[in-house]
Amino acid sequence: MKALLIAESREGKVLGSCSELVAFAQKAGSDSVMFMVGTDSNLPAYDGTIYLADAAKYGEYNPAVHKQLILDVVTKEKPDMIVFSHSSYGWDLAPRVAFALEAAQFSEVADIVDGDPVVPACNSKLRRRLKAKSTVKVLTLQAGAFSLAEPITASPNVEKIDTDTAGKVTFLGYEEAPKGGVDLGKAAIIVSAGRGVGGKDNIPMVAALAKALGGEYGASRPVVDAEWVEHARQVGTTGQTVSPKLYVACGISGAIQHLAGMKKSEFIVAINTDKDAPIGEVADVLVVADVKQFLPALTERLQAG
Amino acid sequence: MKILVCIKQVPDMESRFKVDSAGTWYDTTELVWRMNEYDEYGVEQAVQLKEQTGGDLTVLCIGPDRVKETMKKALAMGCDRGAHVNDPDYATRDPFEIGAIIAEYASDKGFDVIFTGMQSQDRGSAQVGVLVSELLGIPAVTTIVDFVLEGSTVNVKRELEGGIKAKVSVTLPALFTCQLGLNTPRYPTLPNIMKAKKKELLSIPVQDLLKVAFRLETVSMQLPEKKGGGLVLEGDAGELADKLITILKEKTGVLAK
């Protein structure tokens, strides 16, 4: 069995998820080769061959061109699996490659059970085991689902590749995240608000608990999208990644994108009316309660304490 | 300008899910249904584009009769007509079949812009929009959080990891998959809900549009195994607060003992 691992590079830097692709190939007991649109001055640690296309020439986002480059490697290497990260790069590119190869695609693979990929459904409240009808398979891997027991230190053997395909979209550049005054990465205690806090009017309740604990307050994505809290305080894949001593998740269901940003916290308390909420999977303590009743009770005691 | 927005009806994610008797999908009885959240942003963007260009906007949804309720919301938000692909077996379809149904519907209609959600909340494959674009041979830009039309060019921002956005421009026709936070979806007003009742809602049997075979099948669906490490506290808010403070004092160094 052979896997083609699609590594990612942004602004000349290899993204950390590359090692997860290698970990997946190991777990699946598969040989592998790697592909990346990037630069030869910054390569992933990998003990094998990497097919490298020059990002300066092809751009970091140019789906039709990246697809063709991958298809050329597929023709040469004839892999059984083409493996992406389930990221903004992977979920954009994987279906294009799957379509061209008439292959089935498994999205957000979290595990392999008896050879079948397992993927989440319904905000991770359910899991599905899937089988492909096609011989070649395309997979995207859930962030953090596969990790190496020991880091790799080897340097890959580089084979440069080219194509003369033109793309239909024009990549104009990156826009950095707005700079906020809050660096949640440095906070020892974070109290975060999720949609379950009920409304913007209840954010002060979350901020008050953070203050009583001597920490900062943060928020999940839906709360930021609804403009209850500014983006600088967002925790998760598209916000900040945090690992405080104490993380208190208030009315946060626990979407995978949020969990990816906070599951390395030392101690996690979740407050949720839904006992089955996926946040319970990572919480050390799950308080089954309405945030609006529980938070004032807790804050009052801490202030009195 | 001809615009298509594709929506899906999904269960409320706060629901308590059970596996169905076949063991391959969730039990659909006793669930509350709503529009896939990502698609609400798609509908809003489509309505804004229609208002900007004086265009014509169709909303498409695949599923059993009950999805018409969700389609009515899209019509009340401002879509001009509904195309309901009647498919009682929609839950067994894989992303390729769903994409092929939509592409078959769209193939002879000359849509300038197609919006889909970036993914559905129940299945989350993030494949359908891109597959539709590949089948139609038009470009797709995924996970957009900003959309500006200038002439026949659209400038969008794609949301990447870590709060970074990629700025991309594309010439129409094109397909866009919508990320959360793209805009602020409007609430349908009562007069618009009344007006929506008179709008055309065409039903098309799925057999007319489904011409491909599936590539992916579900072996089984399960509830995740509980890892079981966490402590679950239930009871009166005041008592819970006392218990939690005791635990925090014992297990963490953040509270003075």
TrEMBL record, chain A:
One of its GO terms (molecular function) is electron transfer activity. FAD binds at residues 195, 220-221, 234-238, 251-258, 272. One of its GO terms (biological process) is fatty acid beta-oxidation using acyl-CoA dehydrogenase. Its cofactor is FAD. Keywords: Electron transport, FAD, Flavoprotein, Transport. InterPro entries: DHS-like_NAD/FAD-binding_dom, ETF_a/b_N, ETF_a/FixB, ETF_asu_C, ETF_asu_C_CS, Rossmann-like_a/b/a_fold. It holds the Pfam family ETF. Binds 1 FAD per dimer. Residues 3-175 form the Electron transfer flavoprotein alpha/beta-subunit N-terminal domain. PANTHER family: ELECTRON TRANSFER FLAVOPROTEIN ALPHA, ELECTRON TRANSFER FLAVOPROTEIN SUBUNIT ALPHA, MITOCHONDRIAL. Belongs to the ETF alpha-subunit/FixB family. This is Electron transfer flavoprotein alpha subunit apoprotein. It comes from Desulfopila aestuarii DSM 18488. The lineage of its organism: Bacteria, Pseudomonadati, Thermodesulfobacteriota, Desulfobulbia, Desulfobulbales.
Automatic annotation (TrEMBL), chain B:
Residues 23-213 form the Electron transfer flavoprotein alpha/beta-subunit N-terminal domain. The keyword Secreted does not apply. Pfam families: ETF. It comes from the Bacteria. The keyword Disulfide bond does not apply. GO terms for molecular function: electron transfer activity. Belongs to the ETF beta-subunit/FixA family. This is Electron transfer flavoprotein subunit beta. It comes from Desulfopila aestuarii DSM 18488.
